[in-house]
Write a structure and sequence with these properties.
Elements (H helix, E strand, L loop, with lengths): L1 H4 L3 H23 L2 H18 L9 H19 L17 H5 L5 H19 L3 H12 L4 H8 L3 H21 L2
Length: 178
């Protein structure tokens, strides 16, 4: 971290390698589009590189980076023209080419799991960005409530409220989907 703050590009590259997958995962679930998530991930790391001197170290690097990513994704969502339809065909699963050729008895189960992932992503896409962010950080990034409150810079009670209301909305939407 210290070397990155001094402008050492190789040191910052090590941070990128460590945090690239979690940030992409967050961006994909927030933006619901693989290409946009890839672009946003690159932009997040560019913003972090440019702003590393301003990182005060009063929080962890991951908290600071998640905050940048969530703010960037939220801005992208707000800037989208209304009426834009995003494809949810890409369920975010990385499939090895050889796995596509394999034929076994578990394929119906995999199809069911893929359909369930698709339903969850679709339901998540309909949540408010604030609720989606809390659910992403809690369940996919496995942050504690305290860490989420720090990332989002809101009180702990607000985090719990957003999580509860988001889960209730998901429950209703997943129960009503055919």
């Amino acid at each position: 971290m210290v070397e990155s703050r001094r402008g050492n590009a190789q040191a910052f590259n090590r941070l990128v390698l460590k945090w690239e997958k979690p940030i992409y995962s967050l961006a994909f679930r927030m933006l619901q589009d693989r290409e946009e998530a890839e672009e946003a991930t690159q932009e997040v790391f560019l913003l972090a590189f440019k702003g590393i001197q301003r990182f005060r170290q009063d929080s962890t690097f991951s908290t600071w980076l998640y905050r940048i990513a969530l703010n960037h994704c939220s801005t992208r969502i707000k800037q989208r023209p209304s009426g834009i339809s995003l494809s949810l065909d890409d369920n975010g699963a990385v499939i090895h080419p050889m796995d596509k050729l394999a034929v076994d008895g578990s394929q119906p189960d995999e199809l069911l799991r893929a359909e369930q992932r698709h339903r969850v992503l679709k339901a998540l896409s309909r949540l408010l960005p604030e609720q989606r962010a809390v659910i992403e950080l809690k369940f996919y990034q496995e942050l504690t409530f305290e860490e989420i409150a720090e990332v989002l810079a809101v009180p702990l009670s607000t985090i719990k409220s957003r999580l509860y209301s988001g889960l209730e909305m998901l429950k209703g939407r997943l129960g009503s989907q055919d």
